[in-house]
Amino acid sequence: MAEILAGKGKSKYKIHITGKSLPKSEINRQIGLNNKVLIVTDSGIPKTYIKELRKVIKNRSVNVITLSQGEKSKSFSSYQKILNKLLDLKFDRSDKLIALGGGVVGDITGFCAATYLRGIEYIQIPTSLLAQVDSSVGGKTAINAKQGKNLIGSFYNPKFVLISTHFLKTLPENEYKSGLGEVIKYGFIGNKKLKKIIETNAKKIIIRDEKILKLIIEESIKTKSNIVTKDEKETGIRAILNFGHTFGHAIEAYNGFKNITHGAAITLGMVIASKISYFEGHIKDYQLDNVINTISSLGLNTDHKKYKYSHLKKYITSDKKVADGKINLVLIDKKFNAFKTSKFNHKNIIKALS
Question: Can you give the pTM of this predicted structure?
């Protein structure tokens, strides 16, 4: 079982990566025997996973709240539903929340933990590849508003993150591919080792070879944990993790958060950002081809032609990364390192989306 540390000081936490089912002793050590526990999950999580977790926990005071599956559950109403449950159960600051599910479950559970009694502990047990390599690590918690995604939230680190490839065996194909979009991102923003692994093991990744899966998950998390530990509040280097996200979030919002997965939208966003990088002279044409070909090798869609600038403009300009009235983009350079900039020709956004 691999172990990676993230965070610093009192907010430091461990990330465990295993190919096995849930490790009983470690979970109970993190929870404690006398604390109340509320598991937050959603209707898309197999009931066997919930039963398995309940069986592993020795503590008898375990409750479960199940949200509807999908991005729409990352809402004010779901947030209030969870808080009311915590209040009804008389949770105090020694009690624990557990997020068992994908990114939606992890984000809203973390936000509830951050704001209930001004902060209680929570544990992330992500069940999707996307959540395992991205949202479960880094302490970003949030809910959505009608004006956009993740506009209400906080930075609040989990107590513990448990990642098991055991959950990925039953993951639907579109959700698995969604996670691969974020895995590829780490290869494009600086992890040369991961980029090489992806380029030489595409077929094994597609069939979910467990050995390769653990390797790409571990490399992805090493990259993310290293960055978020340096910059917990996204005031500097952490911004590079948003490569593809300005346009990806705009695509999601344009679709009303329906009919496209987060990872699929981010994948298209990375293609758009790479085209802008090329138009700005930061990468060569063959490097742009490499981005598109690497994404395509995993069976992921790179065709964004149906999304025009006129469709996405209002979402791009209301993105969280807008500062002082300027759009900040994350682009890539010739060494496949990412950087944030507000200095670019705006016409190149229109050109990339033409």
Answer: 0.90
